[in-house]
Queue: 2 jobs
Job 1
Amino acid sequence: MKVPIDRLVPSPQQSAAAPANGPATQLVQTGRNSPDELVYVNPPLVRGTTVLAPNLRAWRERACLSTRDKPRAAYGRFGTPTTSAFENAIAELDGAYRALCFPSGLAACAHALLAVSAPGGHVLVSEFAYWPLREFAETTLCQLGVDVEFFTEGDAAGVARRFRPDTQAIFLEAPASISFEVAAVDEIAAQARARGIWVVMDNTWATPLLFRPLDHGADIAVQSASKYIGGHSDCILGVASCSEAAWGRLAESAVRFGQTASPDDLYQALRGLRTLPLRLQQHGRSALHLARWLEQQPEVAVVRAPGLASHPDHATFTRLFAGSSGLFSFVFRPCSEEGLGAFFDSLRLFGIGLSWGGYESLVVPLTARPSSAAGAPAQRGQLVRVHAGLEDIGDLVRDLEGGFAAMRAVFREGPTMVVDRDDETCTRSA
Ligand SMILES: *Cc1c(COP(=O)(O)O)cnc(C)c1O
């Protein structure tokens, strides 16, 4: 017996009408559509290109479907049941009309912005947004005739001063994933919506468990599912959740560009989703513990974690976000490359590497803002982005202690270590 197609693809309206369970329960129950009448707890991985029609009449019915109604259009690029299981799960979690997957987080960010801008229009992009998205906006989007303007304001009044009659869209990321500014997303979105401006937000840091952008006025919420959703550092994937108003634009343009994602990666991400609440809780707890510990170290100039009371945007953060995830940064007082090398090279548990959201702890030296950015203050000390993984917290602290000890040993050996004489030095006061 063939299963009616609607059982394979539960409409998001159906899931929206279901009694509201907590997110952890949702994540156990969601996306269980199965390609046959056997409903597996974990939906089987479905790969495929062509789906055969049983007869001519069925073929004609299928041909009438809009390609946006993927995967019912029955071609692998529009998705398989694995795709719809993942997309439905994210839409449910985000409280969105529907969600659409992309081959990477960057593709989701770039495509979402592309879908709501047009030649001749004005688009506002946060100066602190994910760096490759910023590059997409200032090169490709500009080449397409869009007037792109970057802004640093985090308050609604400040941002609203930049709105013009031809402003089409605004792109936000909060907290910013290197420098951790937290914009007043809800107030900015309200101002934008009142003027008919589309609001796109990169919500990779928080995931829908800690913040749901659409509840706070965003039209499209994008995430890199390569981070916490996948959670195991083994897949590259993006997803965009949207309001009913934004769905048509996003889906039509994504279909035209042939945007799709591999069912294998979607399967990994769906599997990762099931344990997201537990993982995120531990990442957040460990990150705050490490951030507080780092604040006590004399070599550290500042710790940038919005969950700390010392963070300048802490009030906005606690007003909007349900908690912290595992990513934050700190800035060393200016010191020599040798001192930094001693710190990084002696770490045994923290890997030096990009990305985050997996189970492992990472550190990476980064620049807070592109030096080309207008008015960007020169970065003095080295910024280090930290991802707190799922290791035992005592072991992580010990690893950092080893790093600081190695650094101090270098400072004790000679006065040549200090490179920036205008600022406080790295020399230990003891
Ligand atoms: C990593 C990241 C992206 C891009 O995701 P990929 O899946 O690596 O393409 C976008 N936004 C933020 C905030 C990220 O950290």
Note: The first strand starts at residue 98 and ends at 102.
Job 2
Amino acid sequence: MRYISTNRKTAPTTFYKAVLAGLAPDGGLFVPEHIPLPDVSAIRRFANMSLPEIAFVVAKPFMQPDFTDEEIKQIVDESLTMPVPLVQVDEKIWALELFHGPTLAFKDVGARFLARVLGRLAGREKKKIIILTATSGDTGGAVAHAFHRVPGVEVVILYPRGRISAMQERQIATLGANIWPVRINGTFDDCQRLVKDTFSGFEPGNVIVTSANSINLARWLPQSFYYFYAWSRLSGKAPVVFSVPSGNFGNLSAGVLAQKMGLPVQAWVAATNINDVVPEYLRTAMFSPRPSVPTISNAMDVGNPSNFSRLCYLYGESYEQLSQHLSGYAFTDNLTREAIAEVYRKYNYVLDPHTAIAYLGICTYRQKHPESEGVFLATAHPAKFPDVVQEATGKPVPLPELLAALSGKPVKSRDFEPSLSGLSEFIRELI
Ligand SMILES: *Cc1c(COP(=O)(O)O)cnc(C)c1O
């Protein structure tokens, strides 16, 4: 399989090179040149296969010839260790729980897969890989846990001092080994700028410096696996509606990739908070990126969704195609809170604020299509947002063991002012 850029100004390249590059040289995102079609009988057999077994069939054509079957099998087995239960909430509504990974959010899936791929590339290149990432909270934890003790890879995570939650800081800064948390006396924007400046200052040599950004091909691809899994666990026949709580649209566009590979999907629901650039586009055919507005579903506070170009590519750059397959709905914080309260009251099921938006999306769609079977993606564990959830349900959220175990651990971060001087030397010492 070869990969091209959504900007079409980069020569086709391999999986291997696209993963190491992250972003294409022309500033676009890497997408497969063709969509592979696994035969329909293979998809029918998914009902009797585990998530890693399904992932192997789906991933194979994307990763050949850079990886052997044996390597692909190891990568899916090592990265997809968490269960992804499909929980029935109402007669025709299911939650696909993607939050059973080490940091209790769906980003664990992509981050773990990317870590296993990059670990193997470091071994092959016989070079050290340094990952530089800025985080405003959740991504940092997923990346830190995914790369912890992966040989040949050092991970530097920059985060703004005092601007992420204590729990998020512990997820980033208590692991040690090859994870190097850096606390910047500044804002998230300072952290991002420092990462960018550090990149441009590095001479290619005996080290590869890259990012674990969500646009990386090897973080995007694995997000297509669990859609096949969910469908195979339902009737396995009828097309399904998927409601995806969206910010950068990596998750939803990976689902569309699955659909293009043959997954029977009736419709997509692009569910957002009031940062509604994509629902607005579906309504008006105008794409108007703008600064994001803070909400209680903050991992979706995105004003310029980076994976929108992948979505357009998959639908042949056609507004008609896109608007025919996608329904877009946006919801306020108040509606989100009401949904958490209602679902708890009606079904005794607890939603986090992001998942609540996906639930609202599927309900809105089903008002017009009451016969359809709907799956909403549950992207974070409610215990990650204890205040909002407790306020809505009236009950404290029990702390899962994974989070409880963190509370006693000391935070070990290095502190830097928001300038390159000390930081560059620190990074050079890791080489
Ligand atoms: C990142 C995130 C999202 C949004 O996913 P995208 O792929 O950026 O659309 C939704 N929910 C949670 C909990 C997240 O962390």
Note: Residues 105, 107, 138, 245-251, 299-300, 354, 379-380 surround pyridoxal-5'-phosphate (CB under 6 Å).
